[in-house]
Amino acid sequence: MLDVVVIGGSFAGLSAALQLARASRSVLVIDAGEPRNRASAAAHGVPGWDGVPPADILARFRADLAGYPTVRVLENRAEHITGEIDAYHVITASGQSFDARRIILAHGVRDILPDLPGLSGAWGRTVLHCPYCHGYEVKGQPLAVLATGPMAAHQAHMLRADWSDDVTVLVNGAEGLDESGLIAAGLKIEHRAPVRVARAEGIGVWFHDGTETQFAAVFTAPKVSLAQSPADGLGLGMSDGPMGPYVRTGPMQQTDMPGVFAAGDLATPMWNVNFAVGDGARAGTGCHQSLLFPDFIPALEKDAT
């Protein structure tokens, strides 16, 4: 019986595991090797790691964790979680099974990108989601926002305010955009339907009439999914975020399932490496406290709705 199984070995999961390692608790981290930001050339806005490739940061995190003998990282995919507090059961894709007193979910979310040829190949490079993470590197250059819904206006206003005075909103059939407000703020509106994109020096967007426009980057807000999470059968309470659902958590990242904690992108609508590390530290600390004092960090009440 392990003390904790951590599902997901990226920033949140490894941060959680480190807190438990320093308490000499037995921890297994199960990681499928697919961090959400694996396509990004560099992480930005991360103190001490600004401009460093995410894979290099994670390698250092793993190296830190390797110094603690009670923690093991297993390269595999968690498929199912069943059980209850002090008696959870985890099964991997390869058929291995593990028992644990506590679970920390940190496996992230799945991005659902707009269905536009070429977009997925440029994702994380010149198709971007976050001005804070990537805006500085393309500031002052022509930028586009590919609309997926009302969140596009939020992105466009941010980019226009502090990153570029040349921002075009590609409406892309999205509804709910305040176009008059966008125009009043100095943004351009493009109603022609984009049919494909391609990376070059920046990124080219081709329209249905055969013309092309070049941008330094295209920003978009992908929908996200938690479908096929290994925790599907636990019935965790969820909240609705602007781009999709996320797991409802309390101050120490506890869920409404006793003994289950959640951290990182699956537990917040705000996606950022710094947030993931902080969430992971809270989850690891909260999880340890719950092992020592079972009533000290109670599970959230089930949402009546």
From TrEMBL:
Keyword flag Flavoprotein: yes
Domain named FAD/NAD(P)-binding: residues: 3-272
The protein's name in its UniProt record: Thioredoxin reductase
Organism for this UniProt entry: Arenibacterium halophilum
Family annotation (InterPro entries): FAD/NAD-bd_sf (IPR036188), FAD/NAD-binding_dom (IPR023753), Ferredoxin-NADP_redctase_2 (IPR050097)
The UniProt record lists the keyword Flavoprotein: yes
Superkingdom of origin organism: Bacteria
The entry's keywords: Flavoprotein, Oxidoreductase
